[in-house]
Write the structure tokens for this entry.
Amino acid sequence: MDTKDGQVPEEKSDKPKTFDEDYVHGLNKENAKWRTNVRDLEKQVETLTQFKTDAENSKKTEVERLTEEKTRLEREIVDRDTAQTVLAIKTEVRLQAQKKGIIDPDAAYALVDLTQIEYEDGKVTGVDKALNNLIKDKPYLSGENKPQPPTPGVGGEAIGSTGKPSLEGEMLRALKGQFK
């Protein structure tokens, strides 16, 4: 059976094709060579990418580098100024609180209205007024208005001859606790 161009068509068969062992080994060697080439090319791409990045960074002008450095340093200065301001205010509040006889200067700093205090040119102002307002709001901080301990036998508590609450009082308190 000839076709128009003079070639004989291949017969289709269900039988699998087989290849010579040398031919298969040759294909495996060629495949290994291509895999090695791909790995080498991947390394070259990585090297070239790094080279490109380095080249772009080196293109930055000295002005750009100095501008970035200036921005970083300005940020550091602002952070240090803020920390210095907070420390100065905290120190002044605690010092003035001690002078005013406030029993807990740390609590005074935590409770004082910091919006009344200003820090300018290394000086802290408004602390005295802020602490006076704090003492008005929370007089117990000044230590002057200390609460008095309860007087035995006063306030509805019956005290027996032993100096302890009576058994009746304890029982009444226990029963009241059950019915609440």
